[in-house]
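Hello K.,

You asked for the raw outputs rather than the summary table, so here they are, unedited. I folded two proteins back to back in the same session to keep the settings identical. This is the first:
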Amino acid sequence: MATKTTKRKARIAKALTKARKGKAARKKPPKAQAKADQKALHGDTPPWSKAEVEEAFRRFQAAMPEPKGELHHINPFTLVVAVVLSAQATDAGVNKATPALFKLADTPEKMAALGEARVRDLIKTIGLFRMKAKNVVALSEKLIAEHGSQVPNTREALQELPGVGRKTANVVLNMAFGQPTMAVDTHIFRIGNRTGLAPGKDPLAVELKLLEVIPEKYMLHAHHWLILHGRYTCLARKPLCEKCIIADICKWPGKSVANSE
């Protein structure tokens, strides 16, 4: 006779197979989805158990062992610049502009020498390009003057750079220095609240909750798994619950899950 553990593993495997085949969950009607999202934003979604969190990230890891950020960069400096440019813009849009910019300036010295007007011309397809050009040149000058042209590896020092906030600093610390940080963008904020994984009224609250509940062994890649999940599956207006690999764990009341027995 199969043990409870064996049966549980079999149920999980079956649910995961269904999810990957698009049969594990279906969305409720639009009005029910909207009501569910409002409920989630008020922190009313049921919390996850430790076992559920562990299982969700086990699946993310199994599906994508080495997730990568989608912003193109050459080194820590160009990463900082790319993330600054990505504020209120898409990664795809930034990636179209940065090849020409980084070909001319892949160090703080080259960027400062390029000057604000030239940088502005090279990134004019990106939203808020005037302010971003100003910040990119200013942060380059600050790196030269105060950090020996090296990108610092502490959040405090990074946040002192023009145009760099907590989210940008966390991205750089994670991607450039391998620190287990959690950069909460609109996608992660949505997932934290919608699923019930880490509800919070602002990005910092969601960040701190995620750092609290995600097992340490998954933290290095957790930021990317969640961003990619929000970007390609747990979409803002039309979440793809039928393709979601954690649909049976997610607590969002805007969907229903098929019986996996």
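The second followed immediately with the same parameters:
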Amino acid sequence: MRRRRGAWLVLAALGLTLGVYHNHRVHHGEWNPLTALIRGLLLPLQRGAQSATDSAGQLLATLTQAREALREYDHLALENARLKQELAHLRATQAENEALRKMLNLRPLLPSDWVGCRVVATYPQSGQQTLIVDRGARDGVLPGAPVVTGEGVVGVVERADPHSAIVRLLIAPRMAVSAKVLNAQKPSIGVCEGRGESMLLLNFIPPEAPVQEGDPVVTAGLGGKYPANLPIGVIERVWIDRQYSVKKATVRPAADLEQLCVVLVKRGR
């Protein structure tokens, strides 16, 4: 304890002595080497502390700017998503309006009672090739009913629940419709068959029939399922099947069966 007090007394006396010495030198206008030494030792520390303070300030400013940039980015991302959603909705509405307009043009060819349906799901994959509509048995949509759109024939109702129905597309296997080729020289009658592919097969055309690429194909109206003259598609390629002595052709469907939004279904009794 006494040693500690002695040390403090020595330090106090030394400090007092240095203070008196410093004041004396300053009072006489003389240079003080001790003060210069202390300043020389403290100046780098002072500069380092100032530099650290400036760096910390710049870092803080950078972090603040980064935070503001992230906040602005999140806002722009949300706004972009909202605009994309609105654009998709506008495009869907435009597509639906266009489909409805085409169906109105088709209406004179549909003498019986048909009901409009929205397409809620499409399964164009091979082995499925169906779609689901939002009308069912309570709306008069029954199995076996033909389905069309403004562009042409779509398919047939395969199953109907009270509020929805499954439609098998015309391109599906075992699907067929009587068809007429509108050739400029002479119309020809045959059968359009689904093969589980994107193209239809036009079969049983007489070998002498003047059928060629680009000819439109419509329903023949035979069998009573589809009215006559509904568009089916356009001939892509023609060849002779010599084994059966008939002419065949591939037909590209008139309706885009993967992009349907609304269809018409013949209402049952």
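The chain has a mean pLDDT of 81.

Happy to rerun anything if the numbers look odd on your end.

Regards,
P.
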